[in-house]
Amino acid sequence: MPVVPAPLQGAAFAWDRSGRPVPTSVSPSARAARGAAARPPVHAARADESTDPEVDELLDESLVTAAGRFFVSAWTNSGRLPLAPPRFFVVHLDADQTGFQANGRPVTPETLARVIENCHEWGHRPVLVLARSRPPDELVASLAHVLAARLRVSVHTADTGAWQLPGIVFTAGTVRRWDVPGPGEAADSLIPEATVESEPAVAPEPTAESEPAVAPKPTVESGPAAVPDPIPEIVPVSAAARNVWQPVALPPAIRRESPAVARWSPAPRPTDAPPGAEAAPPAHSHPPADLHPPADLHPSGDPGGSPAQAGRPGAVGGARQEPAGLLPWIAVAPEAVPSDRERLRAFLGWQYEAHARAVLGLLALQPGLRSASGSVDVLSGLVALRAYLRAEDPAGTARTAAEPPDVTAGLVDAVLRAAAEGGDRDGLLLLARCAAAGLGRLPSAAGPVVRPTLADPLLAAGLRPGQVLVEPGFLRVSTTPWAVQGQTVGYAIWSATARRTDRLGSPGQPDGHAGPALFAPGTRFVVLDVSTGAGPPESPSGGIWVLLREFVGGRADPTFDERVRGRLQALVSRVDGDTAPTPSGTAGDGGVDGSMIGLGDDGRPYAPEGGDVPPSES
To answer: Fewest Cβ atoms nearer than 10 Å: which of 6, 358, 491, 532?
Structure first.
């Protein structure tokens, strides 16, 4: 048996199911036979850290997927999760108002840093932290700064909910980046008191007191060299604070994954401010998107820099002048928890029991709706959604007992559009939040859908291809040709996330051939074309038709848009022959009114970047 040098008599490593390194015993002869003598000795520092019981337990209970490392239950089967951005190491956590949680229990930033160090798939890549629910900004800043200081890589977080598609993570808010702190910064340098404590130590005045005890010349020479150097070093704390609280642009890796966000978003929004506000664009705006916008992708809500162009251009013949500025709206996060049941019961009154019985019967026939609910309370979500849908059906809102709260679908949408302050605003927002969560449990309706309206055709004619619209409220559509009597504007939409609502008894056309579907609040669309139908003006195909595509992922694909435009134009040509108009105001009109998708009552568009998040209901 050959003599093996001492450096080779170490531990080897294998990988367990969780992906962490585990020391294993290997005989010296086996190491020598594999040519291990040419390798450097194995350092045991990482092995000592990986044997931390707390780190071991967190790694064993985590889930390694293509979408990242999950320390919380994944939203779907691991085999169906999308691929994470290749340049980032994605960590999925849970959170509350007290801090972050991993595998259902609180975890400190230092512990999470040690866990990430022992994830074999990390590879020293920048870390992207995705929390199921967002804690306060102070806790996010503390976690990100500790991770950046310990791991020596940049850390990224999103200030709102994030969506993950293959190779892409995007958000309606801002991605914040924490860089690696400099050599003079500590992990706890975010605390302002640390600066105050370090100031007395920077300029050591007692140098003069030490002169009698030491030779005069060395003291005089070392004093000036030690005093001025540390004085300008008291800036790292302000730099760290600026790194935390100042929103930064998306890092280059993310911007390469979604390059078209700036093209179709109204980039020069600051010029839309009303008179009296600061109209000059900021210095950090994107000049290429502002100076050279494509002719067919210029957003209509963007005045282009001159006050004369602030309104919609001429609004067909100059008859209408649109006020400048973008309208705010209220964004609700889809969420339903068991504690919402009693609040919905108090808000809906006797109708809650009727909706609950219908939903429980549906769950008994289709238990898959419950198993796919994840962290959503499926009963609260579907009850709220059914209450919203039946509020548009006169037969479904018949009152047989004490008068319930005045709840209508139009009032819910008006509150989301920030156009109504009456009624129980907190109750309506509760209903919208739970209904949006319940809507995600229903099957999707991908493909072409239609929606007729009684809107002003002048507003529809002012829309331009490439304009991005956001609809703050729920949007009722149909998967089959649908028209109403006297309609003036029709929408043909290519859907990606609409959900079928026929299982909940959503009212459709009287003939029973409609396939009702619903878009969630805050859905964005891009205008593909605005055309006039070939039929007579009184027919459904004779008015103005607006062709939209649901704007998902922030990507521009002209080839796909051209194919979708052709499919939607073919659908419009068939509407007049396939559909008999439904009298407006009946149960079959599906809540059709005179509102335009993405436009307020005054014709101004809603801000596509996102809405104002309402305060949490108490």
So the answer is: 6
